[in-house]
Amino acid sequence: MALDHLIDTNVVTIVGKIVGEKEFSHEIYGEGFYIYNMKIPRLSKSVDVLPITVSERLLVGLNLKEGDTVKAEGQLRSYNKFINGNNRLVLTVFARDITPFENEEVKNPNTIFLEGYICKNPVYRETPFGREITDLLVAVNRLYNKSDYIPAIAWGRNAKFSSNLSVGDKIRIWGRIQSRQYQKKYSDGNVENKTAYEVSISKMEKEEENNNENEKKHTTS
């Protein structure tokens, strides 16, 4: 698979405001990386707050501070982190570029495209109000023989469509990255407020083999 294609299978563009101060994340071969939180508006007037990982080399000449509006382009990446004795899947937007953004209005400030493979059986469910939802886990190949494992949620017709997918199916999805607050209850009675990140799917497409030719089946929400 071409290297350029691997970059094109995971594409994120977000525009929002910096929240809080940057935090040091890690260092690789002398290159430091920092985490910013970015607040991104939804059409519903609520907001998503997403973690952005930025190389110190992209920050040269930038003095980003709380309240600044920036545009970040990159990939949604996952890694396992050992937290409280358990492995936890952690998601972050890995910035390939980050720049100050002057425009006040952005038609779509939160977009993501992924091309990958179903790596866990889809889970279909209905809310108490009858809304259909399917939970997916998508493996997206990355450079250097690595993969990112991205949770995604399909709604409505997409939920019905994706509930019939199987492990190994190749799909393409378009949507936005959302943050979701929830409470985890422990056996000792303690309750912890946590944040989950996932892709909310607006359009999806399955690639199928038929007579040795690729066919695409797609649906939109």
Proportion of residues in β-strands? over 45%
Helical coverage, percent range: under 10%
**Per the principal axes of the C-alpha atoms, what is the gross shape?**
globular
Mean of residue pLDDT values = 89
- CATH architecture descriptor name of the largest domain: Beta Barrel
CATH fold-level topology of the largest domain:
OB fold (Dihydrolipoamide Acetyltransferase, E2P)
Main β-sheet, in a few words?
12 strands, mixed
Structure description:
It is a single chain. The chain has helices at about 5-10, 155-165; strands spanning about 10-30, 30-40, 45-55, 70-85, 85-100, 110-120, 125, 130-140, 145-155, 170-185, 190-210, 215-220. With about 220 residues, it is mainly beta. Strands 1, 2, 3, 4, 5, 6, 7, 8, 9, 10, 11 and 12 form a twelve-stranded mixed sheet that branches. It is globular and about 50 Å long. The chain starts with a helix and ends with a strand.
